[in-house]
Amino acid sequence: MSKPVKITSPDQLSSLLSSSRIVVVNFYNEWSGVSRAVASVYDQLATQLSRANIVTFTNVNAEQQSQIAQTYGVTSAPTFIIFKNGNQIQRIIGANLQQLSEAIKRLATEAESDGSSGGFGEASSSSGGPWRGADVPRGYNDVTDQVDVRGLDLLNADSDFGGVRTLFEITQPTTLAMGKGKRAASGSEGKKDWVVSDVDEQLMLYMPFTSTLKVHTIQITAAPSSSEDDEDAPMRPRTVHIYTNRQHNLGFEEAEDLPATQTIEFKPSDWDEKTATAKLELRFVKFQSVYSLVLFVASGEGDGEKTRIDRIRIIGESGEKREMGKLQKAGDDS
């Protein structure tokens, strides 16, 4: 049990990231009233949850340590970044102490009960952080934690499979965790932690964000069928239309008539064989101030009747935290 460690150099922080399994960093400013207001509660969390070489709390003065703030893309205070095994796994902007407390308590419990995997599943690399199906481009972060799961909406999903929040789970899809032979043998048994369309191949997903984002890439994971002879197996997405800054989900007929911000046509070669993941590389200039996205899966890659998605990851930069009670004006869409 201890108080937060004051960080006075980049090397000091790097050393802690190497020696402590979980590191919580509070980027603050002396002049920020919000930073001062949350300081006492943050200190209490540190006193309660710090564990030597397991959970370490730190404070970084964002102005005095501008190099560190710039390295991690911190532009406002307070900003809390949680690292696991040296990798950033969550970023919380503003005074959302309940979210911070819940995240740290969960991680502390996992770290103490399972020193190897920490309950996160196997990542595509050996990072030990949340699973993702592809590398993050240099200079950007996984900002999937900025998805406001309370506002998610998914149309035409088969209720026999996972719900919309399944798409944003931090664990590796169970289908990928098993070998191909085991997948074929298991059939439809076990946890169905993926989404499948219902009456046809189309899906309509609405994703609001808790912060305004610059979105660089969207990663979509869709496991292939375990049997090439299964004609009824769900397909991977082929045509995906993306819409920005909508107030709510679109209807299918509405989307057909609305120009998309960008349309992606996947080829079979776009899907990584090991992770079953394809990257939607966006026209970055069109995705600079994004507070919501709609993904319209218009067609699948084959002649089947249903489409499947296992996971979605959002890659980019997080900016100013949104005031969720205030809606942008209709017509602000990019």
Automatic annotation (TrEMBL):
Residues 1-109 form the Thioredoxin domain. Residues 132-334 form the PITH domain. It comes from the Eukaryota. The keyword Disulfide bond applies. One of its GO terms (cellular component) is cytoplasm. Pfam families: PITH, Thioredoxin. Residues 111-139 are annotated as: Disordered. SUPFAM superfamilies: Galactose-binding domain-like (SSF49785), Thioredoxin-like (SSF52833). The keyword Transmembrane does not apply. Keywords: Disulfide bond. InterPro entries: Galactose-bd-like_sf, PITH_dom, PITH_dom_sf, Thioredoxin-like_sf, Thioredoxin_domain. Belongs to the thioredoxin family. This is DUF1000-domain-containing protein. It comes from Lojkania enalia. The lineage of its organism: Eukaryota, Fungi, Dikarya, Ascomycota, Pezizomycotina.
